[in-house]
């Protein structure tokens, strides 16, 4: 909800400050590991934990090295934030090792086809989550769940009929996130079993905007913008096959996928998924920029005492401009018959009519999907505890500045300015 009266961004809870003081004392007295961002040290620790040193495609080491350097030099993390960042990196490295173990144990995983996936592609905060969850309600599609994007790789003791410990981990992560900053769940309501974007599949390669929304790492972000992301998308495909296998899902079902990362990397996506179909979402850039900055701020301020909301605003305005430029360039490789444009305000006005239009594009009968989609729509509000309120002013931006940067996008895709009333995410 864009609100001109909001002048200051929300603050994290006292829980974070307490944890920070405890972490500082524990590190000083050597009760906790002192955070390190030495790449080889982290890789050695992961290899010892997993009992293997096969990380798969070594391409990931390049973004990992840049990310670690950026965290150390730019992010200005407090002691607890640095310790969490270190442990997150170790966890991802262990996941890579375990993925290779699963592929070696079950080579049939990598033979699973990924036919005609549907990608929902749009700027951050442009309504991709709503469309993704509506489509995921249809049993003819396969989708990732939140616990699978947090931990894409099953634990070594995983069995198809047993309890999946990743679900317990996701529940705990959600509780900690709520304690640290409850605004994050207002911005993106979710639960362990909810349909979720494939962000964690890129994190597995230490790739993408997730890191930029969590920490102030502009050097890393700009480095990624100049790289070919194809290897990250190839690893994403391998992990998607592993998740489909762990779900015991039919490989005949198309996946429905979404994350704003695709705005930047359409060329890489098309290299790996040449038969993909695309639903492009569009929204008033005044909302997109303010809401994106709010999402990033509400995470960054948890890990650092030096987060600057105006710096966050400038960065996400720049990033939104780049996403739109890259998206427009990438669309040139996609046949018109394989893409459709959907406007946020049109879905707000009549989501059923827009879903019927999407199903016509996908050449699917929508009638059998109505009951599940209606059920999702009725239950969606239960996840949302409070409206997400934000403004441009709290991030040092004005309407004139944003429209000066993104007005051409509105003209090109016939994007209307939204009224000031609250809208669904």
UniProtKB/TrEMBL annotation:
Superkingdom of origin organism: Bacteria
Record-linked InterPro entries: P-loop_NTPase, Stf3_sulfotransferase
Full protein name: Sulfotransferase
